[in-house]
Design goal:
- It is a single chain.
- With 175 residues, the chain is mainly α.
- The protein contains five helices and two strands, in the order αβααβαα.
- Strands 1-2 form a two-stranded antiparallel ribbon.
């Protein structure tokens, strides 16, 4: 296995570990939210989201290895920078939302919307990070099929997810 592919495997594994860290934070925040009277919405799409995001990581590795995708420096380094920026944006969102951040749609009635950080400019900045990462991570090692499949499946999922979040927030804010 060539050196660039080994580094790519390490990168994808690191992103996988980052996902585990997100789940740890999410579980802690869910426990807090439920203790505060939080209500979960949109449970139906969540398993598909987990499978799709796990599939992104697996697809990156399988395509790069099985299809023998090359590392193209101009594309690879640029996409690596996008992956790093997407991770930064994601953790900025997590930090700004604090206990209100979750991988699930859990809203605590009575809490106000967060309007700081990236939420000052865009309503759902975490999903910008998801979209960027879904394209960029596979393209670090030219796994273009994975990038396309993830994006095509992720866009309708995001539409469902955002509708669920908006409805949950509207309900919580009117209570």
């Amino acid at each position: 296995m060539e050196t660039s592919l080994w580094w790519y495997v390490v990168l994808v594994l690191l992103v996988g570990l980052e996902r585990v860290a997100e789940l740890v934070v999410s579980l802690r925040n869910a426990k807090w939210s439920f203790a505060q009277g939080g209500v979960e919405s949109g449970k139906g799409h969540y398993p598909f989201m987990v499978v799709l995001h796990t599939g992104l990581l697996a697809g990156c590795l399988v395509e790069a290895i099985v299809a023998d995708r090359p590392f193209v420096p101009e594309l690879g380094w640029t996409m690596l920078a996008v992956v790093v920026l997407a991770q930064g944006l994601r953790w900025w969102c997590i930090t700004v939302l604090g206990r209100q951040w979750n991988t699930r749609v859990i809203v605590v009635p009575g809490l106000s919307l967060v309007a700081g950080g990236p939420y000052r400019w865009i309503r759902h900045p975490n999903y910008v990070a998801v979209v960027l990462e879904g394209v960029a991570l596979p393209l670090v090692h030219t796994s273009w099929v994975t990038a396309v499949v993830f994006t095509v499946l992720n866009l309708p999922l995001l539409a469902v997810r955002i509708r669920a979040e908006e409805a949950a927030l509207d309900t919580a804010l009117t209570r």
